[in-house]
Each structure stands twice: as structure tokens, then as C-alpha cells.
Design goal:
Largest sheet: 6 strands, mixed
Distance between the termini: 16 Å
CATH architecture of the largest domain: 2-Layer Sandwich
CATH topology of the largest domain: Pseudouridine synthase
Shape: globular
Radius of gyration: 19 Å
Order of helices and strands: EEEHEEEEEHHHH
Strand content: 15-25%
Length: 193
């Protein structure tokens, strides 16, 4: 499928996303931690791990059900992503420095009143590293200046929701009750796209 281009044909070729460090995502919240409350608001950096994997590891470490872990958005597994989670604080608290999960690091933990809900973040900041660029630098700089001024269409497809998303939303529309809450939410996001 060929989509229209806002600024003409590609200027050249380049490679990207060869390693997780080539694609960095930072989740932005519109609020700070409350400073008190029954939850812990965690800022987590994950490398090569998807959001569900991290939520499961956080739940296991805290000794709480996975469904009680909150997060605002799903972040790509093939990236270095910084995102937020909430986890209920069990009696006696949790020492997040002892979490052992490959590619997962808790950067900050603060008391918070509410569980994070899907879509509660303000947005995401991205840093994408490209290599082996074949286009002239001046042409790239001119194009980037136009994009900064006017923006660009945000086309996304299978990379946004993973493989098999069509089957998931078809199951959702057919009323398949065997889908768990996370599967239904994921399918609904794919359908909206």
C-alpha cells in the first residue's frame, strides 16, 4: 500500500531500529506523584521488554495481582522506553531496588492516590537514531524545518499494534467472551486505529 507523502518523495534511504537503543520513548504524564496514597507511582525504564511483561514482573515483586498494576499506555518492546506504572503498596512496602527482571529498572517510586488508567498520559517523546543515510544533509535539514513548521501525517499500521490485530478486533466484534480484559482493550485500540 502506498500512502500519500506530505512533502514529496523520500530524499534517500537510511537504516533504523537495528537495536532497542535506536528507538527511545519517554512517556509524559500531565501530573506529578501525589506524595501520599495507597499506590506507588513508578517510573520504569525498560529495554527489550513489552508493557505486559513489566506489569507482570512488578506485580510479582510486590506480591499483588497483575490486574491491580496500572499503566497509561503500551510501549514498544523493541525500544528503550521510560514509562509509568502504579502498584498497590502492600503492608510493609516494597524495595524496588531488589527487583530482578531483565531489561527492567525502576528509576523512581513515589506514593500516589490513584491507579493509572489507559490514556492518562499527556503524550510521548521519541528519539529515533538513523544510520547509513544516503540523502544530502541540506535536503534533510530543509525537510525537517518544514515538518517542524507544519507537522506531518501520522501513518501507522501493523507495527503499532503487533501481528494478528485484525483477528483480535474481529473476535471483539463477534462478541467473543473468551477474551480477557487486556485482550479486549488491545483489540479495541486496534479497531479505533
Amino acid at each position: 500500500m502506498s500512502l500519500p507523502r506530505a512533502y514529496g518523495p523520500a530524499l534517500g534511504r537510511a537504516g533504523f531500529r537495528r537495536t532497542p537503543a535506536d528507538f527511545e520513548v519517554e512517556e509524559l504524564l500531565p501530573f506529578a506523584a501525589d506524595g501520599d496514597g495507597p499506590q506507588q507511582l513508578l517510573q520504569v525504564r525498560k529495554t527489550g521488554a513489552n508493557t505486559a511483561f513489566v506489569a507482570g514482573r512488578l506485580a510479582r515483586h510486590a506480591g499483588v495481582p497483575e490486574r491491580d498494576v496500572g499503566y497509561s499506555g503500551l510501549k514498544d518492546r523493541h525500544a528503550v522506553a521510560t514509562q509509568y506504572f502504579t502498584v498497590p503498596t502492600p503492608p510493609g512496602g516494597v524495595d524496588w531496588t531488589t527487583l530482578q527482571a531483565e531489561g527492567v529498572e525502576v528509576l523512581d517510586a513515589q506514593p500516589h492516590r490513584r491507579k493509572l488508567r489507559r490514556g492518562s498520559h499527556r503524550g510521548n517523546r521519541f528519539a529515533i537514531r538513523v544510520v547509513d543515510v544516503s540523502a544530502p544533509t541540506t535536503a534533510i535539514e530543509d525537510r525537517l524545518a518544514r515538518i517542524r513548521q507544519s507537522g506531518f501525517p501520522n501513518y501507522f499500521g501493523e507495527q503499532r499494534f503487533g501481528h494478528g490485530n485484525r483477528q483480535a478486533w474481529q473476535r471483539l466484534l463477534a462478541g467473543d467472551r473468551r477474551m480477557n480484559r487486556n485482550q479486549r482493550g488491545f483489540a479495541l485500540s486496534a479497531l479505533r486505529a
